[in-house]
Input
Amino acid sequence: MVPAPEGMNIPMLRGCLNACVAKDLVTLKQGQQFGSGTTFPMYEEIYTIAPGMKDALLEVLYPPES
Output
């Protein structure tokens, strides 16, 4: 797991990731699951970078410092 880029909050990151999903750069798996010892389900979203896109997305999201 990689933290959000500096200055980017969770809604901004989610918006970027959803835009990447629309372009088939990232896949999204959504679902509910029960954690151990809990009675309420947890909603989970897992974004996975498409093969071959990791380096490009990391460069865009985490540009090298000048």
In short: The first helix runs from residue 10 to 22.
